[in-house]
C-alpha cells in the first residue's frame, strides 16, 4: 500500500521535473534540487515526520523565486551571490510574486495528504499491535493447562486422542484473556481505517492533488513573469541592483505548456492505488473479529477432535 504512495510521488516528481525541462529550460538544472526536496518533504510528511505541507511548499517557492527572477524575469543577471539570493528568498515572503497559486497549492495538498498521513500512521500502529500480541507471554497456569490438554492422555497410552472442542475453548480463552481484551479497540481501529480510506477516495483525492502540482507551479511562474516589471522595481529597492550583461536577454521565448507527460502512466498508478485501497479495506473488514475469535481459530482444525464422538476432556476419555 505504501509502495503505491511512493509510486505516485515519483510519478508526480517526474512530471514536475519535465515541466522545467520542457518549458523553463534556462532554470531546469538549478530547479532540480528544490523539486526533489519538495517531494522528499511530502513523502516524509505522509510517513509521519514532524513537518507540515505548508512549510514544505513555501520552502520550495522560496528556493524557486531567485531562479525565476534571475533566469526568466531578468535573464541578464550575472552576479547571483549568496547574499543576493538570500535577499530574494526573504523578499518572496513579502511581495508574494506567485500570487494566490502558492497558497492554493498548500490548501489542495494539505487536504489530500492529511488522510494519507493518518492512514500511514494507523497502518504503523496496527503493525505494532500485531507484532506485540504475536509474542504474548503465557502464564504458568496457562502452560499447565496446555500440557494437561495436549499430553495427559499419553499417560494412558492414548496418543491419538485429541481434546474436546469445549475443553479446548475453555483452555485457550483462559490463556488468551489479556489478548482478547483488545477486541473493542481493534474493532474501532478497523472502523478508523475504513473512514480514512473512504476519505482518500472522496474529497481528499491524493492522486489528483499530486498530479496537479506541476500545473500549480506552472501557473505560479507565469504569474510572476506577467508581473515582472513591478517585481523588479520592488526587488531593486530591497536588495539593490545586481550586475547585468550588456543588452538584457528577453524571456519571451518561455512558452507555457499544457501537458508535460503521458496520461496513461498516471491512470495506471491511480488504478493501482484504488485497487490496493479496495482490497485492503475488504481484507481488514474480515479481520474485524480477530482478537475476539482467536480462541475459536486455534481450536479449529487438527488441534481438536471434531469428526468423532470420542475426545479428551482433561480428566478422561468421553
Automatic annotation (TrEMBL):
GO CC annotation: cell surface; extracellular region; plasma membrane; side of membrane
InterPro entries, alphabetically?
Answer: Glypican, Glypican_CS
Give the record's keywords alphabetically.
Answer: Cell membrane, Glycoprotein, GPI-anchor, Heparan sulfate, Lipoprotein, Membrane, Proteoglycan, Signal
Superkingdom field: Eukaryota
- Membrane topology designation: Lipid-anchor; GPI-anchor
Q: What is the annotated signal peptide range for this record?
A: none
UniProt keyword annotation of Membrane present = yes
**Subcellular locations according to the entry:** Cell membrane
Could you tell me what this protein does?
Cell surface proteoglycan.
Family of this protein: Belongs to the glypican family.
Name assigned to this protein: GPC5 protein
